Amino acid sequence: MTVEVLFFFSIILGPEIRASRSHHNSKICSFTEHQHKKNNMKISTIALTSILFTASVQAGVTIIEFTDDCDYDTVAAAVAAAGEDLATWGLDGGEAQIEELCEEARNKNSSTQRGGGACKCIVESCVWRSCHNTRVLCSLLFPIVRQPDSRFLSISSVPFKRITDKGWQFDNNYFDGGTYLNEEYEPVEVNFDDIYDNQAQDTLITYPDDYIEKNFGDCQAQSVMCCWVQDRYDDGNNNGNCAQDDCKDADPADNTNVCYVEMEAGSASSHVAGGDAIFSPQDNDEGDAHCHGFAWEDDETSKDYRYRGNLLFYVSMYDHLSARGYVREVPGAPMCGCVEKMPVVEESDCTEGEIDETYRFRFNSNGNHGATISDVAITYNACTNNELADRFDELETVTDETREIFESYIVGEGNCDDVFDTWFEEKYGYVLSRR
User: How many other CB atoms are there within 10 angstroms of residue 145's CB atom?
Assistant: First the structure.
C-alpha cells in the first residue's frame, strides 16, 4: 500500500492557505494515519476501507476530501476520521444540510461560468478559441494544482457546443448525419483526440438536451443510441471495410439488423412528417449498420446522469468518428438521438463510464460551509456483454412504461422478422408473405 500526500501553494487570504492532492495505488483495507505539524496546523491523511480521506484542521475551520459518493454517512465518516464531529459545526443529524452541500458541489462541477468550481489547467492545447482571451489568474481565487506543460485555464465543465465551436446549426446537422465531419473521407480539423486526452477524462461535458433538444431532449427510454452506415477512413484496426485508397461505399462493422424506421419519431431530423423506411425485410439485406449507445439512471444526482455529455462525446465523436471513421445515418432517422427517436434495431453495443469524484468540504465555525468537486477521473468501459440492453437491465430507476419504450426499439437478436410483421400488420392491416 502506498499513500502519497503532495502539497502545493495557492494564493488565498484567510485560514486556508494550501491545496492538497492525495493518491493511492492499491485498495486500502487497513487504517493508516500520517500527521504533520507546522505552524499549529495538523494535516491528516486517513485511509479507511477503500476510501481515502484527506483532512486539515485549523482554528475554526476543518477541510476534508474524499473520493466516493457524496452522502451524509460518507461525510460523517470523513469528519470522524479527522477527529472531528458534525455536531461541532451544527450539522449533527442534518442529512438535508449535507445533501445541500453535496448538491452545491455537483452544481459547481456542472457550471459553465468561470469561477463555478475549482480552477483547472488544460494540458498542451485549448479546446475552444475564446480561452486564449481568458487567462484569468485563478490562483487569486481558488487553489490550483498545475500539471506539467499546462498553459490555459478552464472553467469547471465543458459546454458541449464548445467541442466543435461551430455553432448550433453545424452541431445539429452533424448529429443528423450531415456536415463535412460525416461527408469527408479524411480526418477533419476538429481534433477530437486532444479533447479526449485533455478534457473528456477529467472534466464534465454538459449534455446537450437543451442545446440540441430535438435529438437529446427528454429521452423517455433513459438512453441514447447512434447508428452509422458508412466507414469514412481506414483506421488500421479492421473497423469497417474502408481500404486505405478506396472508401467509396465502405461499410462499418455490422453489429445489428435494422428492422424499420418510423420517420415521425425523428421528423425534426429527417424533415419528413410521417411515413416509414422499410429495408427489404424478407432478406435482411438493409446493408451493414453499426449501433452503439449508453443509458443512465433516472436520478439527476447519479454520475451516469450528470456525465451523459461525456459519454455522448466519447461514443459519437471520439470512439466512432475519430477512432473508427464511422459516419452517416440510417435513412429516415437521426444519426444519434434518444433511443425512441432512432431506428428499431435488434441490438446495440454500449459504453458506460467509471467515474471517480473527489469531494472537498470546508466547515467553518461561523456556519459558512461550502463544498466542491476537486477532482474527477473518468474511464470509459464496455457495458456488460457490450450490450445496451444488458446495461438497461442493470438500471434501478426504470418504470414499466420506460422499459416498454426501450424494448420496442431494441428488440433482441433474431427478433426483427417477428417485430416487423406485427408492426406492419397493426399499422397497415396487411400480413407480409415470407416466401
Answer: 18
